[in-house]
Design goal:
One of its GO terms (molecular function) is oxidoreductase activity. The protein is built from 30 helices and no strands. It is mostly helical.
């Protein structure tokens, strides 16, 4: 409901907001100026028909403009379009670093504020020029900007004919430079942000919008003349930018100022009114059929076109990527089954460990909490994941297949789990808020919940502070998993400088908590590589010894209190800092790594044993194990919001309350798995068919490099 209200508010605010060009005030200014131009040019015929010609405003291209307007406003209502625009944050970091605690602001005055405003406006426009140019000249970005250029007619609403990804990319490209210059300007000329500075910048943009910015996307030709068009971009120059004619390609990228086009050789000044055809061309000046005829194609196709560009670049650029040789060693049915046994046990152990909390079962099973079995189970799962991913990478063979399968594996359960969490939390908190204590429930703004959840960066401390997605605390493990997938994929499929740059970027983004448990996950990778390279089969005695010893050592260390001793060591090493604040869910990193090592030893023994075994997949036990393991992801992602909802709604006086809670939770988890996790092959097949149906063989779009 909050999202719907926010969306409605965004729609209702648009006509009255002075922050958008198509507000009622700016449109009125446009009409007044247009009337003056019409009169100046002779005023022949009807002004209304001249201003609003049917062939423009009844055109189906304009209808798509309207649809995209509503779509973009929806994404804006979620806060996604501005989620990565932090120039002010960068500015304050620079200002704080330069000024220090004892810095005294220089005297504020109109002169200083005017200079600061000019610097900020000019710098912002300079960055917009290069961001715009990048969207034209970088093949990977062009598909998102091509949505805007596909307009066959121009109206003031065409400014909103953008793919939602484009403003996000533009903001990323602009954030650092704009923030840096803003910080330096404020330090040098102002020293602090005040109403005069803000008012100065706003007054400039107000004047820009009021004095004709809407004519840029219109059929009305307005030229400033040869001299001024070297300084300011006129409406005519921007209309030329939208032209399909070859002589107009790669021209007039500027937003306000033409100086940048003049300086960098992209300026085009028309000497007379030119007849223009708008849209996308084949690169030779011939317009092509509308590439995005529907809202769905406008939103979906750019992702496919951009990804295809990346894959083509990856395949054709020497030294950028490498393929892996196929598996020469097959995973036996017996070993695969045992992995599923451990996977099922680990998932159920996490559920039992969380259900044992006092708030769910009164503390009757609190020994499971004291033993911290849930944390140990996640460490086991990480090792299993490393084994499976190392095996799958060789089966996939290349980066494209690897990325597709990992992304679909995550997305098939992640997105539905996020929706379920939102719904369950909304219902439960309205029925009984006491079932949602602060330490186990974090009410996030919907925009942050969506973008941190959909990107699975909720535990990426290099991106921002870690967050709990409502009650879905266990989803932290998925955030770790995605980090591991990306680091592993970059390490094995990329080469040379590209590998170094991508890995360095990922290390900075994922943060310390995920890096702390990476060695535990990587033990699974090393285990599979070790198994695959072994040419001789060890004796049965040594195999049984490894299989039993791995678990026996783990249990012995647990009973001896080693986990607490290792955590105490971690606390000592990180003093005076709080180890929880640094490591978050990796606070038992040393013990978790020991768990991973013991499980790796155990699995190596199992691998040796299963080389001599033949498995019957038709037994009930085998099918039951596969069935439970096939829902393990769903158990991880769904059980906690379900437990909270049941705790909020189920009467504690109900006979066999604990069994009801367990049964209902498992029913939800396995029902979720039946809908989203088990049909993974069908989901991938549908995606491939959709991709094929949306793709048509078309010439490259205009301005595509």
């Amino acid at each position: 409901m909050d999202t719907i209200l926010a969306y409605i508010n965004h729609l209702l605010d648009a006509p009255f907001s002075l922050n958008v060009r198509y507000s009622a005030f700016y449109l009125c200014c446009t009409v007044i100026i247009a009337y003056a131009i019409w009169k100046f040019r002779g005023g022949a015929g009807s002004f209304t028909k001249w201003l609003l010609p049917k062939e423009v405003y009844h055109h189906k291209s304009n209808m798509l403009d309207i649809k995209l307007f509503f779509a973009v406003r929806f994404f804006a209502s979620l806060g996604l379009l501005g989620a990565v625009f932090f120039p002010t944050t960068v500015a304050y970091i620079i200002l704080d670093a330069l000024a220090g605690a004892d810095h005294k602001s220089p005297p504020s005055g109109w002169t200083r504020c005017a200079i600061a405003t000019a610097i900020i406006v000019i710098t912002s426009d300079f960055c917009k020029y290069w961001a715009h140019r990048a969207h034209h000249e970088w093949r990977v970005l062009w598909p998102f900007h091509a949505v805007h250029h596909s307009a066959d007619v121009l109206t003031p609403l065409t400014v909103e004919r953008v793919h939602p990804v484009e403003p996000i990319i533009r903001n990323i490209l602009m954030t650092v430079i704009v923030g840096l210059v803003q910080g330096l300007a404020l330090y040098t000329f102002v020293g602090k942000v005040d109403i005069v500075t803000i008012g100065g910048a706003n007054a400039f943009y107000f004047a820009f919008n009021a004095l004709g910015s809407n004519f840029r996307h219109s059929h009305i030709w307005i030229s400033y003349g040869w001299v001024i068009e070297h300084i300011l971009i006129s409406p005519a120059q921007h209309q030329v930018h939208h032209s399909v004619a070859r002589r107009h390609h790669d021209k007039n990228y500027g937003s306000i100022f033409a100086l940048w086009d003049w300086m960098f050789g992209t300026l085009y000044i028309p000497t007379e009114r030119e007849k223009l055809t708008f849209g996308v061309s084949d690169g030779t000046g011939e317009p092509i059929e509308q590439p995005y005829p529907t809202l769905v194609s406008a939103l979906v196709l750019p992702f496919k076109e951009s990804s295809e560009t990346i894959l083509r670049s990856v395949k054709t650029t020497p030294g950028l990527t490498q393929s892996l040789p196929p598996n020469t060693t097959k995973m036996t049915e017996g070993f695969s089954l045992w992995l599923d046994v451990l996977r099922a046990i680990a998932a159920l152990t996490v559920l039992f460990g969380h259900m044992a909390h006092v708030r769910f079962t009164r503390g009757d099973y609190y020994f499971l909490r004291e033993w911290n079995v849930a944390s140990d189970a996640v460490a086991v799962f990480f090792v299993l994941s490393g084994v499976v991913i190392a095996y799958s990478a060789r089966r996939d063979g290349n980066l494209g297949t690897y990325a597709f399968k990992r992304a679909t594996r995550i997305a098939s359960v992640l997105f539905p789990a996020l929706i379920l969490t939102l719904v369950f939390d909304a219902v439960g908190t309205r029925i009984n808020m006491s079932a949602y204590p602060r330490d186990y429930y974090q009410a996030l703004p919907l925009s942050e919940f969506v973008w941190r959840g959909m990107t699975v960066t909720n535990l990426w401390t290099g991106v921002s502070d870690w967050v709990r997605l409502g009650t879905n605390g266990p989803i932290w493990s998925l955030s770790y998993e995605v980090g591991f997938y990306l680091i592993f994929g970059s390490f094995v499929f990329l080469k040379g400088l590209m590998r170094a740059v991508v890995l360095a970027t990922l290390v900075l983004l994922v943060g310390i908590p995920i890096l702390a448990l990476l060695p535990a996950w990587w033990l699974g990778v090393l285990l599979w590589n070790s198994c695959a390279k072994t040419s001789t089969t060890p004796t049965m005695a040594s195999s049984w010894f490894m299989a039993i010893a791995g678990l026996a050592i783990l249990v012995a260390l647990k009973v001896a209190g080693v986990p607490q001793q290792l955590e105490n060591l971690t606390i000592f090493v990180l003093q005076p800092h709080n180890h929880h604040s640094i490591l978050v869910y990796s606070n038992e990193v040393l013990w978790n790594t020991v768990v991973a090592a013991c499980i790796a030893i155990h699995l190596r023994g199992i691998w040796n044993l299963t080389q001599r075994m033949k498995l019957n997949n038709d037994t009930r036990v085998t099918k039951a194990v596969r069935w439970v393991a096939g829902g393990s992801f769903s158990i991880y992602l769904v059980h906690y919001p379900t437990l909270h909802l049941i705790d909020a709604t189920l009467p504690e006086t109900l006979p066999a309350y604990d069994l009801w809670m367990l049964g209902l939770t498992l029913a939800v988890c396995f029902g979720f798995a039946a809908l989203f996790e088990r049909p993974l092959k069908r989901f991938r097949s549908i995606l491939k068919k959709m991709s094929a149906s949306l793709t048509e063989v078309r010439p490259n779009g205009r301005l595509s490099p």
